[in-house]
Structure formats: structure tokens, C-alpha cells
């Protein structure tokens, strides 16, 4: 009896495997271009770029309908009153009910000076090294940066030094600042480089990040810092993830950069990205470090950076946003 059942199970699995193989044969999955193919396409495109007002308006409309970035990108007193249940977007079985402790930490409503005109979204890719894009970046009306990047003198020429919004992953607070349990002074001092910008933190994405984000908020508030901590709305992050999944980005979680690009597309009249290049070689076929400040690779399988870049490059070619790759125009020709 047991042997017959076991063989029966094997037959079922064999049939399922055949069906799956037939499905992929009839409907082949989308193939991400190889690194070399992408480099060749970028070089072919060259300096050509033309702003597409219709495409920009369409994407803003699509993002408004699915994700409402104007009202929902951050947790506010307006969209998250006391008693509201915030479901974590990274851990679906956890939630936080807004209470008298957390509600006072939220900003009243959208704090950004809308409408935003020319926005720069600055990634941390090694492609920024020797790009001389700092002046270009600093000339934008609103500048977004990812994960508390260094802006010291040695990098300013390539990445600029102005910031209006910068993300801070709780894991950075954990590793770089020892959970803010021993001393908060070092954290407060290092945050001064971002001026009076907004610190955007995913406090309700993973449960361990909630306390870390709250500590960062208290550390800056207690020091009378000019920085404003914003907590990313998990509903916004979740809907943005679905938006890009429907467009071919299949990953456990979107990168911080793509979240910011989505925010910019929903709020800005013109978007330019810098430092988005998830490949190991540059346009000159020379090796490129992962970050402009180090070569630490991300966790494998967590993000789908090449898929994300393909989507951004499609938007670049269609005039919805501009992707800067290579050196900026005041020193050499741009891409």
C-alpha cells in the first residue's frame, strides 16, 4: 500500500513537472539582457534624450491611482490616526496599532514643498566615481539620497553635498551606530552633513526596525536637530512593490533607490537619476565597484537590481525620466 502511494505521488510530481516545462516552452519567461547587451544599448543611445511630457503625466497618474504618493508616502497624523493598524510590508504577519506613544512622532501631513520641479534621485553606485556629477546634482530643486551615504570632501565633486531627503535603513542604525544604545552623540554629529533634510525610515517594514527608527527620532529630537524624521508608510511601500512587479521586477523587495524613483515620479515635474548602475563593468568595460565609497555587495536574491535598471532605462528611452550614466556634461559628454 505504502509503495503504491509513494509511486502515485511520484507520478503526480512528474506530471506537474511536464506541465511546467510545457508552459515555459509555450510562454517563455522574460529574459533580462546580459550586462554586455545593456552596456551596448546605453552606448548606442548616447546623448539622445527628449523629455516626454505625456509619458511623465501618465506615470504620475498611474502612481497616483495605485499608490497616492502625495498623501501616503509617509506615515502622518492625517493618514494614520490613533487606532489605525499599520501592517508591516516586509513581515505580513506583524502589525502596529497607532497609539499615544507613536502618534506624536508622526508629522501632521505631507511635509514636502509641492509641487516639486527638477528632482535628482542619487543612488550609491560605483559608476559615480570620477563622474564629476556633483555640480549637476546640487543644481536640482529637490535631491533624494539613499541610506545615509558619505558626502565628505573626497566625494563632493562626484556626488554633490546638498540633500533634501535621505533614507536610513534601520540596519545602518544597528551596525554603524550600535543600535543607539551606548551613545547617540556620534549619530547626531554625523547626521549634520545632511543639513535640514528629511530622514526617511521604514519603521514599519520589519518589526526589529520599529524600535531602531524610534530611537533615531528621539536622538535627533532631543538634540534639537534641524533634521525631520519621516516614517515610510508600509501601505505605500507595499503598493509600489506591486506596481513594479506588474512591470517585470520580480524580487523579494525593491531596492531603496527604486522606492525613491517611484516617489519622485509621483511628485516631480522632471526626474534625473544618478548612480544607478548595478553592473560590474562600466561603459568603458572597466571594473566598477558596487558603491562609490566601498565594494560591499548586497545580499544575493534580496533585490533584483538588473531588472530594476532595465525598467529605468526603458523610462529613460521613452523620455519619462533621465538616467545619468558616466561623466556629466560640463566635463565630458553625458549619457
TrEMBL record:
GO molecular function of the protein, one example?
Answer: alpha-N-acetylneuraminate alpha-2,8-sialyltransferase activity
UniProt record similarity statement: Belongs to the glycosyltransferase 29 family.
Q: Where in the cell is it found?
A: Golgi apparatus membrane
Reactions listed under catalytic activity: an N-acetyl-alpha-neuraminyl-(2->3)-beta-D-galactosyl derivative + CMP-N-acetyl-beta-neuraminate = an N-acetyl-alpha-neuraminyl-(2->8)-N-acetyl-alpha-neuraminyl-(2->3)-beta-D-galactosyl derivative + CMP + H(+); [alpha-N-acetylneuraminyl-(2->8)](n)-alpha-N-acetylneuraminyl-(2->8)-alpha-N-acetylneuraminyl-(2->3)-beta-D-galactosyl-(1->4)-beta-D-glucosyl-(1<->1)-ceramide + CMP-N-acetyl-beta-neuraminate = [alpha-N-acetylneuraminyl-(2->8)](n+1)-alpha-N-acetylneuraminyl-(2->8)-alpha-N-acetylneuraminyl-(2->3)-beta-D-galactosyl-(1->4)-beta-D-glucosyl-(1<->1)-ceramide + CMP + H(+); a ganglioside GD3 + CMP-N-acetyl-beta-neuraminate = a ganglioside GT3 + CMP + H(+); a ganglioside GD3 (d18:1(4E)) + CMP-N-acetyl-beta-neuraminate = a ganglioside GT3 (d18:1(4E)) + CMP + H(+)
Which keywords belong to this entry? Disulfide bond, Glycoprotein, Glycosyltransferase, Golgi apparatus, Lipid metabolism, Membrane, Signal-anchor, Sphingolipid metabolism, Transferase, Transmembrane, Transmembrane helix
Matching entries from InterPro entries are given as:
Glyco_trans_29, Glycosyltr_29_Sialyltrsf, GT29-like_sf, Sialyl_trans
Disulfide-bonded cysteines: 119-268
* Highest taxon of source: Eukaryota
Pathway, per Swiss-Prot/TrEMBL? Answer: Sphingolipid metabolism; Lipid metabolism; sphingolipid metabolism; Protein modification; protein glycosylation
Query: Which GO biological process annotations does it have?
Result: N-glycan processing; oligosaccharide metabolic process; sphingolipid metabolic process
Describe its membrane topology.
Single-pass type II membrane protein
Q: What does the record give as EC number?
A: 2.4.3.8
**What Gene Ontology terms describe where this protein resides (cellular component)?**
Golgi membrane
- This protein is called Alpha-N-acetylneuraminide alpha-2,8-sialyltransferase
A Pfam family that the UniProt record links to this protein: Glyco_transf_29
Q: Which positions, given as ranges, span the membrane?
A: 12-30
Amino acid at each position: 500500500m505504502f509503495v503504491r502511494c509513494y509511486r502515485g505521488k511520484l507520478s503526480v510530481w512528474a506530471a506537474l513537472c511536464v506541465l511546467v516545462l510545457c508552459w515555459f516552452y509555450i510562454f517563455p519567461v522574460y529574459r533580462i539582457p546580459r550586462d554586455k547587451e545593456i552596456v551596448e544599448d546605453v552606448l548606442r543611445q548616447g546623448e539622445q534624450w527628449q523629455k516626454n511630457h505625456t509619458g511623465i503625466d501618465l506615470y504620475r497618474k498611474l502612481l497616483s491611482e495605485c499608490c497616492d504618493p502625495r498623501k501616503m508616502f509617509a506615515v502622518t497624523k492625517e493618514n494614520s490616526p490613533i487606532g489605525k493598524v499599520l501592517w508591516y510590508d516586509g513581515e505580513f504577519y506583524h502589525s502596529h496599532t497607532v497609539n499615544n506613544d507613536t502618534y506624536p512622532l508622526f508629522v501632521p501631513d505631507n511635509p514636502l514643498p509641492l509641487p516639486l520641479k527638477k528632482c535628482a534621485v542619487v543612488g550609491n553606485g560605483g559608476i559615480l566615481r570620477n563622474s564629476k556629477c556633483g555640480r549637476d546634482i546640487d543644481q536640482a530643486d529637490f535631491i533624494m539620497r539613499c541610506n545615509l551615504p558619505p558626502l565628505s570632501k573626497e566625494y563632493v565633486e562626484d556626488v554633490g553635498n546638498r540633500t533634501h531627503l535621505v533614507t536610513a535603513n534601520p540596519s545602518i542604525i544597528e551596525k554603524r551606530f550600535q543600535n543607539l544604545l551606548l551613545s547617540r552623540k556620534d549619530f547626531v554629529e554625523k547626521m549634520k552633513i545632511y543639513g535640514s533634510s528629511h530622514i526617511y525610515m521604514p519603521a514599519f517594514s520589519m518589526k526589529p526596525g520599529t524600535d531602531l527608527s524610534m530611537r533615531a527620532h528621539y536622538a535627533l529630537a532631543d538634540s534639537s536637530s534641524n533634521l525631520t524624521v519621516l516614517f515610510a508608510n508600509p501601505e505605500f511601500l507595499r503598493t509600489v512593490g506591486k506596481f513594479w512587479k506588474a512591470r517585470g521586477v520580480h524580487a523579494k523587495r525593491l531596492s531603496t533607490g527604486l522606492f525613491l524613483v517611484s516617489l519622485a515620479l509621483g511628485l516631480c515635474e522632471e526626474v534625473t537619476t544618478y548612480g544607478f548602475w548595478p553592473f560590474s563593468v562600466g561603459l568603458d568595460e572597466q571594473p566598477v565597484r558596487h558603491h562609490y565609497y566601498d565594494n560591499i555587495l548586497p545580499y544575493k536574491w534580496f533585490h533584483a537590481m538588473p531588472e530594476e535598471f532595465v525598467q529605468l532605462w526603458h523610462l529613460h528611452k521613452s523620455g519619462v525620466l533621465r538616467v545619468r550614466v558616466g561623466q556629466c556634461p560640463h566635463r565630458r559628454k553625458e549619457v
